[in-house]
Amino acid sequence: MMSDLSGLSEKARARIAAERLCDEFVTRGAARFDSDVLLPAEVLLDLYGEDIRARAYVTSDPEHGEMMLRPDFTVPVVQAHMAGDVTPASYTYFGEVFRKQDAHPDRRNEYFQVGYEVFGGADAAAAEADVFGTFAEMLAPYGLRAATGDIGILVDAVKGLKTTEARRAALLRHIWRPRRFRSLLTRFSEAGAKQREANIARVRANLETTDAPLIGLRTQTEIDARIAALEEDASEPPISASEVALLDDILSLKETVPYVLSALRDIAVDMPAIAGSVERLDRRANAMAKKGVDVEALDFEASYGRTSMEYYNGFVFGFYAEGRPDLPPVATGGRYDALTAVLGQGEGVPAVGGVMRPDLMVALKGDA
Fold first, then answer.
1. How far apart are CA 312 and CA 303, in angstroms?
2. pTM across the whole model
3. pLDDT single digits (tens) 113-145
4. Which residue among 123, 167, 223, 305 is the one 20 to 30 A from 37 at the CA level?
């Protein structure tokens, strides 16, 4: 480590820190990866939807169409790996990424990102423990608070609900939008049954009593089909209050890993669909302990990652500077098998990784 980088600009110090971190990952067996700064917007928009457009810098190229300043490295590294022979491999990279900061104008919209991604391997728990343990070890000098979670637990809980496939699909689609998820859950529950019927009756009454011409984008046929779908849904039995309560119990969990494991085992008695996720959490905890992680004191939040980590579908983690709520996470990561399946045209591989913010590390400690 350099003891004094004070004579350099913040960006120069962040670059030096990024190079040093990347070198460390190389010593741990990762291959270097790089990508273009301008990426085709189509793939990113397909993955994230139009939401990404509001947070990314998009431009138009006369030959290549819409292009986007690199919002992160994960998509290009997954694309490159899935285009190869898809054997187990690990990669590291660093470079600048670009994100608009409308909600946090005081935060940087251009900064360095260092990453470590691991593809393949038969032991998912060992891979997750390797990535998290490596990050914890490298970030230990910064005194950060670690948070962990697992999106897969909520996904499995929703998949196991005693309701229609259409309702489960709607809830799964909005797991990363907590307000919308809650609104749908209420609508599909016993509490929302009367409201569903009242809404349909009101729409029917409005259509029958008005002589106004149709001027919207939907045709009368589309409107009738939508009302028929709503009526069909309203005729289905609601999601029971007991299942809603179990989902609420899962989402409220925020404690150390051993406590959460005990609570989830109790919930799994009444919601067996999450039993596999609970066992995965147990195996991961054991693998982390073997890597030297203090699992007894490690925080776990069942809702962690739901608002900011959309392509993760399992284990998620983050490292935060205590006492600095003005700073974003210093590091984040997790499992994203589903993303590899999308970019691999249905042929997915196990994948877990994470990214660090060297500019924040320099801000906290002066070097990295």
1. 13
2. 0.85
3. 999 999 998 899 999 999 999 999 999 999 999
4. 305
